[in-house]
Design brief:
This protein has a 5-stranded mixed barrel. The longest helix has 29 residues. Helix content is 36%, strand content 22%. It is built from 17 helices and 16 strands. The protein is an alpha+beta fold and 493 residues long.
Length: 493
């Protein structure tokens, strides 16, 4: 038997590592079987029982009784068996004798080997605990302290766990220093030879979602849903919200009294501008709100292809596109519609160019244009709308000639767009013709102040709010302007 002191030593180490008693008993059993295997080369016929309460460890080896021993590890003579245990006198050749092994026979080898094995198993158990804990917490927000900053990652400590935030998961405008407290969302947990790899993120869309969930009780309660999120981390984000209760304005609830809720999120994200868009089942309305702060004059939407052409007053086109195309890209992502934005004059010019006969374009050979004419392809718009297989079916047309045609058409369109329109008093463009040519839905009614659509527009003029300081900031909204039960004044004109 091993005295209680040895058990207490191992138990104290296990308590420091937060290892459960049942797990400790298993480790000790594995430990002594490992020692036996190191000593004798085989432990398959051995078993170990650990009693932590009594402070006892019992090791048993099953051996077959034989006349002559060929393998002392698994065989024993009857005389030796009786010498070890007098009750073995009742046994015969071929019977199994259970020998009790005193762990003290291993001497100092036991202590040295036990320390190494025990330390390794404790590390394995600790890593397993950490993995199981964090694997069940994917998607949660955690707060930790930066303890190491590297070129491609920062490492964050939370109690005994080490979390990693790769460069791609960081907000580019932020700088992290050792000792900083960082809030992030657990993105993934994987097992590696070095232990669990816990990846956290501040740039992931889910991080923004969880921040809103923390600040807006209506979201956590399911009264308000965030249907979609698009971000350029650290710069701008757009979210679409929907209320499941007609009495609650989702935009106003997310903004909070005097902008308190939204500003808390903005500060956490290092002043990332956030546009909150009220959901609509009508794609025309939804896309229009998502393009805020710019207001489209007219929209042409192809629901089958999830494609939208948005027309703006020429002076508002830059605002619609945004710096480096950020606004329109975010609007496309958050609505899941591919959006092309044009100024009215620019779009009119493009449509006129699309009506140009192919044979009149420089670089298009008469042979190829004649071949395309046989299959009904005469103008630029027909060429651009046709499938490749259809075009290749024309006589005298191959892939090389098509590449030449496309290049010539592109050059022609780009050159024409560079020509400044001199006639500012020209007649209003007939958008009804575009419906027929492009198969896009629109209302033929022209209105400079409203979006022309074929569906009724919701009578809520307060459906989008932005934290952009260039617009009406939620920070600037007074108590009378921001109310959870009343519509929010539109901040982006």
């Amino acid at each position: 038997m091993v005295n209680r002191e040895l058990i207490e030593v191992f138990s104290e180490i296990a308590r420091e590592k937060n290892v459960e008693r049942s797990e400790l008993a298993t480790i000790l059993e594995e430990l002594f079987l490992y020692v036996i295997e190191k000593e004798y080369g085989d432990s398959s016929n051995c078993s170990c029982i650990v009693n932590l309460d009594k402070g006892e460890i019992e090791i048993y080896a099953e051996k077959t009784i034989v006349d002559e021993i060929d393998d002392y590890k698994v065989e024993i003579t009857l005389a030796e068996a009786i010498a070890k245990e007098p009750d073995a006198a009742d046994l015969e050749i071929g019977d199994v004798f259970v020998e009790v092994i005193d762990p003290r026979v291993f001497g100092r080898r036991l202590i040295t080997t036990a320390k190494q094995f025990f330390a390794q198993r404790l590390r394995d158990v600790e890593r397993n605990y950490i993995y199981e804990d964090y694997a069940n917490r994917v998607g949660e927000i955690v707060i930790g302290v930066v303890h190491q900053v590297q070129r491609d990652s920062i490492f964050i400590n939370i109690e005994q766990a080490e979390l990693r935030m790769p460069k791609i998961e960081q907000i580019k405008s932020e700088r992290y220093r050792r000792g900083d407290t960082v809030r992030s969302v657990i993105k993934s947990v994987e097992v590696t030879p070095k232990g669990p790899d816990i990846v956290v993120s501040r740039s992931d869309n889910h991080f923004l979602y969880k921040l809103f969930e923390m600040e807006v009780p209506e979201i956590e309660d399911g009264i308000i849903d965030i249907t979609s999120i698009a971000r350029h981390p650290g710069e701008r984000a757009k979210i679409i919200v929907r209320s499941n209760d007609r009495r609650i304005d989702p935009v106003g609830a997310c903004v909070g009294m005097r902008g308190s809720r939204i500003q808390a999120i903005v500060r956490e994200l290092n002043n990332e501008k956030i546009d909150i868009v009220n959901y609509s089942e009508q794609p025309e309305i939804l896309v229009s709100r998502a393009l805020s702060p710019a207001k489209p004059v007219q929209l042409f939407i192809d629901d089958e292809k999830n494609y939208c052409v948005a027309l703006f007053e020429d002076e508002n086109l830059d605002a619609a596109i945004g710096r480096n195309g950020m606004n329109i890209n975010l609007a496309s992502k958050v609505t899941e519609y591919r959006i092309d934005a044009y100024g009215i004059k620019q779009y009119e010019r493009i449509q006129e160019d699309h009506k140009t006969v192919l044979s009149e374009i420089e670089g298009v050979s008469s042979k190829v244009s004649a071949g395309l004419a046989t299959i009904g392809i005469n103008v630029v718009s027909e060429l651009l709308d046709a499938d490749m297989e259809v075009l290749l079916s024309a006589k005298g047309v191959d892939e090389d000639s098509l590449d030449t045609i496309y290049e010539a058409v592109q050059t022609f369109v780009e050159r024409e767009l560079e020509i400044e329109t001199e006639d500012d008093d020209s007649e209003d463009f007939d958008f009804s013709s575009l419906e027929k040519e492009d198969g896009l839905e629109s209302d033929t009614k022209e209105n400079d102040d409203e979006i022309a659509t074929d569906k009724p527009v919701e009578e809520s003029g307060e459906e989008t709010v932005s934290t952009d300081q260039n617009d009406t900031s939620s920070e600037e909204l007074g108590e009378e302007d921001v109310n959870e039960d009343e519509p929010i004044a539109e901040s982006t004109e």
